[in-house]
Amino acid sequence: MIEIKSFVFSPFSENTYVLYDGSKEAIIIDPGCYEPYEYDELNNFIKNNQLTPVGIYNTHAHIDHVLGVEKLKNIYKVPFALHKLDEPLLRAVKTYAPNYGFPVFSEPAVERWLKEGETVEFGNSSLGIRFVPGHAPGHVAFVNDAQKFVIGGDVLFRQSIGRTDLPGGNMGTLLNSIRTQLFTLPDDYTVYAGHMQPTTIGYEKKHNPFLN
């Protein structure tokens, strides 16, 4: 069974996730930690639960989701995975990070390019990859059907959706991604988003003002 631990990091209030199972292998999704105390919080959780990280996987490459990637790669000696279409977003972060108050940013190398229909595997567990562009060109979501959850990044929020006014964003594309890739899931699937609290597919079908 997959356990999900969430952390809220940075002034962006970004949700970073650690997923692990009984094997004690773990993956880190969208590490947005930057300050030393944020790394301490994440690393202490991993240490105290005797977890072994085996990879870092990102839904997309906006600054708030990649701040901690390079440092965690070095700490745990693990590969980083991202969709190829988000490579330009990743490469751009170093040019604007100081303007957002993050003067020290090290650009991580990408060891694996994620593709729709493939799986992310760790321990005894796996996640399916769905391609959900619109907020970012190469945005993906990670889905587990056995436990009925989605790690959705900045696509679908509780009664909201991801912004589309950033480079590579497109409102029509985003709404189509939600309708064809997320709203085709059963209503009882939980969506763990990149910001704010979790929601469910069924709740958003009924209450999301952007999709009614």
UniProtKB/TrEMBL annotation:
One of its GO terms (molecular function) is metal ion binding. Coiled coil: none annotated. Its cofactor is Zn(2+). The keyword Plastid does not apply. Keywords: Hydrolase, Metal-binding, Zinc. CDD domains: metallo-hydrolase-like_MBL-fold. It holds the Pfam family Lactamase_B. Gene3D superfamilies: Ribonuclease Z/Hydroxyacylglutathione hydrolase-like. Signal peptide: none annotated. SUPFAM superfamilies: Metallo-hydrolase/oxidoreductase. The keyword Metal-binding applies. Residues 13-195 form the Metallo-beta-lactamase domain. PANTHER family: HYDROXYACYLGLUTATHIONE HYDROLASE GLOC (PTHR46233:SF3). This is MBL fold metallo-hydrolase. It comes from Salmonirosea aquatica.
